[in-house]
Amino acid sequence: MKKLMIILLICFSLPIIGSCINPPESNNTKPVFSKILEEEGIDSYNIPVFLVKLALNFSDESESIMPLFKGSRSISLAILDDHRHNYLQSYKRICNSLELSSYSDLVNIIDSDSRITIKALLHESIIRELVVLIHDKDNFVAISMTGRINPRDIAEAITKLNKSKKCEL
What is the pLDDT of residues 46-88, one digit of tens each? Predict the structure, then answer.
């Protein structure tokens, strides 16, 4: 009987212990990008990062690109090239929805032909989701990386990538 009581006690206490170790996240730190794309009627494709890394192993630049995926779990990719779709309106609505969902602007590049926006959902100085939106007159590309991404890792990878490109010149 004591063994049964101990087993029952352990079974009932595991969910409580688990929630203390990994507390539930608040609503504003959950990645919502795929839901926003669905609302816009844009299909996205989830790709596990290990498949991307596997494919990059056959590339000459894999060593310099691989650190960009450190801490990432999955990548979502959406490409629109349907000329009947208003890319600019979708781009603006997606940017507004991301801002309302607590995503922070990291980079905005606007020139005469295109717009590139990089946003991040931060939680305790860790990037939960990194979103890259690219819009020009012919298409719209949206890329999302989810996981527990350290901003320092991305900065170091970009620095190394830039140094290797300068050496080639």
Answer: 888 888 888 877 777 667 677 778 888 889 988 887 766 777 7
Is residue 45 in some structural domain? yes
Q: How far is CA 124 from CA 30, 82, 109, 151, in A?
A: 13, 39, 26, 11
Indicate whether 14 belongs to any domain: no
Report the b/e string of 149-164 with b at 16+ CB within 10 A. beeebbeebeeebeee
What's the CA gap between 123 and 133, in Å, rounded?
21
Per-residue pLDDT at 164: 64
- Under 8 Å between Cβ of 80 and 45: no
Residue 105 lies in a domain: yes
* pLDDT tens-place string over residues 82-98: 766 777 788 888 888 89
3 domain-assigned = no
129 CA to centre of own chain: 3
Largest CA distance in the chain: 77
- The Cα 126–Cα 6 span in angstroms is 39
Domain residues for the domain of 130 are 26-168
Supply the pLDDT for residue 29: 54
Q: Indicate the number of domains in the chain.
A: 1
The sign of the torsion formed by the CA atoms of 88, 89, 92, 97 equals negative
**Helix, strand or coil for residue 29?**
helix
